[in-house]
Structures are given as C-alpha cells and as structure tokens.
C-alpha cells in the first residue's frame, strides 16, 4: 500500500498533517517511510485527482476521508468532537488506515 499526503503551498496544516500521518502509520504498523508529500499546484490537477483541499490523506490512491465537496485548491476541514478543524483526530486517521488496509486485502 502506498501513502500520500496531498497539500497546497502555504497550507498552515501541511507540517502538522505530515507529522500526524507518520504517527498514524507507525501506530498501525504500516510503512511510515513510504509517505509521499505531493503539492497540488493547479485547479486542473485538483480536478484530476478529486482533491478536496489541503491536507488530503491518501492510501493506494484513495482519499481516506471521502468528500462530496467540489475539487479545489483550498484548505480542508475535518469534523472533530470539538467542531471542525484543519486535521482529523489521530484515532479517525488510524481507523481510516485500517479500513483501507482491510479493503486492499479483500481486493487482492
């Protein structure tokens, strides 16, 4: 499984998102060294990748937090127990990674 963090330039959540993703991957026993950071620089690429804002957490090409929002070069928010925030809670990211891992096992 490959892991990618998609961001936009100037996103204040990029560095914290990278740290969060690495922590979640490590906690789940996944290959944290395989995390790729990809900067999305155009609306065309955002549409092509169905990029719903920065940061977007991706595993095996799939957004771990599906969104019905239009693709855009913008900041992204996630629901948390305290309200919306620029990052998902660690436990939500870990659960999303587990689900992605299980889905990949079923597909193979």
Instruction: Tell me the domain tally.
Output: 1
Q: How far do the termini sit from each other? A: 11 Å
The count of helical stretches stands at 3
CATH topology: Glutaredoxin
Shape-level CATH architecture: 3-Layer(aba) Sandwich
Biggest β-sheet, characterized? 4 strands, mixed
Overall structural class, as computed from helix and strand content, comes to alpha+beta
**What is the helical fraction, as a range of percent?**
25-40%
| H-E order | EHEHEEEEH
* Spatial order of the strands forming the largest sheet: 2-1-3-4
Could you please describe the fold and organization of this structure?
This is Thioredoxin family protein. β1, α1 and β2 form a beta-alpha-beta unit. The strands form two sheets. The chain has a four-stranded mixed β-sheet, with helices on one face. Strands 5-6 form a two-stranded antiparallel sheet. The chain has a single domain (3-107), classed as 3-Layer(aba) Sandwich (Glutaredoxin), CATH 3.40.30. By secondary structure, the protein is α+β, with helices and mostly antiparallel strands. α1 (14-27) crosses α3. It has three helices and six strands, in the order βαβαββββα.
């Amino acid at each position: 499984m490959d892991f990618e963090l998609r961001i936009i330039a100037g996103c204040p959540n990029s560095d914290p998102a990278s740290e969060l993703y690495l922590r979640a991957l490590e906690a789940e026993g996944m290959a944290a060294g395989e995390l790729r950071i990809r900067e999305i620089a155009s609306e065309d690429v955002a549409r092509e990748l169905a990029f719903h804002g920065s940061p977007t957490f991706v595993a095996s090409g799939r957004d771990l937090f599906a969104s019905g929002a239009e693709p855009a070069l913008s900041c992204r928010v996630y629901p948390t127990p305290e309200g919306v925030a620029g990052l998902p809670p660690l436990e939500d990211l870990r659960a999303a990674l587990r689900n992605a891992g299980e889905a990949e096992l079923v597909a193979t």
